[in-house]
Amino acid sequence: MESAEIRRRWLSFFEERGHTVVPSASLIADDPTLLLVPAGMVPFKPYFLGEVKPPFDRATSVQKCVRTPDIEEVGKTTRHGTFFQMCGNFSFGDYFKEGAIKYAWELLTSAQDKGGYGLDPERLWITVYQDDDEAERIWHDVVGVPSERIQRLGKKDNYWSMGVPGPCGPCSEINYDRGPEFGAEGGPAVNDERYVEIWNLVFMQYERGEGIGKEEFEILGELPSKNIDTGLGLERLAMILQGVQNMYEIDTSMAVIDKATELTGVAYGDAQASDVSLRVVTDHMRTSVMLIGDGVTPGNEGRGYVLRRIMRRAIRNMRLLGATGPVVKDLIDVVIGMMGQQYPELITDRERIEKVALAEENAFLKTLKAGTNILDTAVTDTKAAGGTVLAGDKAFLLHDTWGFPIDLTLEMAAEQGLSVDEDGFRRLMKEQRERAKADAQAKKTGHAGAGAYREIADKAGATDFVGYTDTESEST
Ligand code: ATP
Ligand code: MG
Ligand code: MG
Ligand code: MG
Predict the structure, then answer these.
(1) Ligand 2 centroid to 207 CA: how many Å?
(2) Cβ(199) to ligand 1 under 6 A?
(3) What is the spatial distance between Cα 176 and Cα 198, in angstroms, rounded to a whole number?
(4) Nearest to 454 by CA among 464, 465, 444, 466
């Protein structure tokens, strides 16, 4: 089943059941605590928080999402992309646990000729939160899932909150058993690659008090109005329904792998390392196109830096695979060819997207060679002195003068067996930001607008990645 059909079936299933279809919001979150949208619930947050009265009791969407914190997993696991689409259904004080569980089961297991996805019920495994007897009872007694395929997990996996006082509650995840070729048996609690998580149901049930992070807090009581927030990964379901090994090989990705092999002459399936590179390129080019499509431009702060980091990593992986000239235009054309069906604005905006991406590629290719030489010399010197850690000031120089995002330096140093003094790097970055701030302050002379902008940029974490990746991992 094609991705477009998965999406169509999702929306019509929930629309037929009284949900209002809400188009995807932009990846640029309309929310000061987030740089980019990491989950389908984000556009509905004011309703869940009770800040705004929802215009409907039920909604459904297929939301564009970016999760930068998953970047390290890309290409290595079979199921993590920095960009993906989250199919969701939402209830605002309307149906709750039993309603959400029954809908999910019906849509996943009803036959394809009856409008469902036709998954074999015996391959579905359920996880519930350790204390959530009610969810376990519904899965077992109402839906009929045998006890041996229901597992209980702790807060880390199966509890949702936003890390601050407000709504919270247990989740229940639906996982698909891809069979013994994906590793040991034992269910999702022991093997999350074989039993791949496809759908998370969040039961917003309680009011959370103060506490620490997402795991240590007290519960003040039941919410007066209980909500449902769910998220299913469209690419993950496509991977299963299309019978491919990983999410980079589905219908809306595979042609990028093919193009990258054509441009580099490296065959897919040749070697583990080059396969990872090909998947990284595929994922990152998709993400880059979607980000530029939504108006992000490469830069050294906030969203612009997310884009820069992802694009430069894609370009360098193409070099690792053997590309010598520019590659971005060809790759972008393929991405737009595949994604344009769902997002026609990519086709309308093709020229602008290409212009932004090509300028970034040119800028990076200009400094990549010189920067690589600097890095190689620094690595050789560090090793000659018996060291194993590349100094923070080298990483800073590479960032500041040669446009190497920190994770590029980390990756390149690691390839040569060194780690990097990231704390030192961050200290220098912070000092530089403070200098820039002081300069701006001095120049301000009554330009309140510029000052306010600066403050927002600082809040967003500026060039310091660590600051916001955590908020970005906010999930359903
Ligand atoms: P995982 O445990 O596999 O990392 P998750 O629990 O972090 O997934 P959720 O936050 O529950 O994911 O998001 C809801 C759904 O979105 C998941 O069940 C999955 O299908 C999909 N999803 C989450 N992260 C990604 C990703 N990086 N790439 C593709 N799909 C994803
Ligand atoms: Mg995750
Ligand atoms: Mg999970
Ligand atoms: Mg989950």
Answers:
(1) 24
(2) yes
(3) 7
(4) 444
ipTM given for this complex: 0.99
Residue 52 gets the label, from left (phi > 0), alpha (psi -120 to 50) or beta, of beta
Contact 199, 108 (CB under 8 A): yes
Q: How far, in Å, is the centroid of ligand 3 from the Cα of 343? A: 27
Per-residue buried b or exposed e for 382-408, using 16+ beta carbons within 10 Å of the residue's own CB: beeeeeeebbbebbbbbbeebbbbbbb
| 349 Cα: distance to centroid of ligand 3 (angstroms) | 35
Angle between helices 392-402 and 422-444 (to 10 degrees): 50
Give tens-digit pLDDT for 154-191: 999 999 988 888 889 999 999 999 999 999 999 999 99
pLDDT on residue 87: 98
**Cβ–Cβ under 8 Å, residues 149 and 199:** no
Binding site membership of 287 for ligand 1 (Cβ less than 6 Å):
no
Each residue of 84-107: pLDDT tens digit? 999 999 999 999 999 999 999 999
Ligand at shortest distance from the CA of 153: 3
